[in-house]
C-alpha cells in the first residue's frame, strides 16, 4: 500500500521533478552497488555516487574506475540505463524551456507577480508609454492584455503578454489583476469612437469588479461617455480628443513663435504635475508668497483647486485658504 501511494505521488509530480527524482534514485542505486562490489576502489558511498553521475552523464573524468568483472558489468548497465535517463532529462528541460518561452510569446502563461501595471491594448500609445518607462529605468513590472496580437516576443519588450479580451474574468485572472497596482485602458483604434468607449467602460467595470483597490486610468474619446466611465469606476479619465482639439486650436491661432504642441511634449517628458494639499503653515499666504516658497525648492506653483474649481495662474494677491489643493510642476 505504501508503494502504491508512492507510485501515485510520483506520477502526480511535475515532469521536471519526476525526471530529477528518477535520475537521483538511479545514480544512488548504481553508486551504492559499485561501493558494495568494490569497496577498496570506492571506499565510501559518496565516491560511488560521484562515479555514477560522472559515468551516467558521459563526462568520464576517470578518477574512479571499476576493476572487477562485476564492477565493469555495473558500469555497462549504468551507461545503457543511466546515460539514457540523464540525456532524456536534459532534453526534456531544453524542450520545456523552449515551450515555456513560446507560450510566453503567445500570451498563454499566467502572471504571478504583484504590484504591477496592466496595459490594455497594444497600439502606438502603449508602445510610447512603455518606451518612456523603460528609458527612465523605473523598474515597473508590465503586463499587457490584448486580443489582436497572436504573439509578442518576451525578450524584445520585457513585458508579460496575456492574450484575450480584458472584459473576461478568466483573462483578468491570468493577468493577476487582483494583485495589480495600476491599469491603463487605451481606446481601441480599430473601432468607431462610441464602440471604443463602450468597450473601455465595460473593461473598467470588469477591472473594478475584480480589484476594488485598483487605480484605473481610462482613455475616453466622446464627451457623452465621460460620466459613464466615472460611474464604471475609472479614477482618471484621459480625454484624448479634447486634448488634441485644444492643441490644434492653439497651433492654428498662436501668435508667438513657440509651438504649443512641441512645448507641451517637452514639459510632459521632463516635468510632472502634482496635486498636494495646502499645509497649515501656508494658510493665509498669498499665491505669490506660496509660489516663492516652492520656487526655492525647485518646484513651480501653477494653480490651485478650490471647491472643485481649477484656477490656473490666479492673481498674485489671491489668499490661500484651508482645503485648497495646489497644482505643482516638478522635475521627474
From TrEMBL:
PROSITE patterns referenced in this protein's UniProt entry, alphabetically: RCK_N (PS51201)
Keyword Nucleotide-binding in record: no
Keyword ATP-binding appears in the UniProt entry: no
Main localization of the protein described in the UniProt heading: membrane
GO biological process, one term: monoatomic ion transmembrane transport
Domain of life: Bacteria
One Pfam assignment: TrkA_N
Gene3D superfamilies xref list: 1.10.287.70, NAD(P)-binding Rossmann-like Domain
Compartment annotation: Cell membrane
Membrane topology of the entry: Multi-pass membrane protein
Transmembrane regions: 15-37, 49-67, 73-91
InterPro entries xrefs: K_chnl_dom, NAD(P)-bd_dom_sf, RCK_N, Trk_Ktr_HKT_K-transport
Keywords: Ion channel, Ion transport, Membrane, Transmembrane, Transmembrane helix, Transport
Domain RCK N-terminal: 114-238
Protein's name in the database: Potassium channel family protein
Organism: Aquibacillus rhizosphaerae
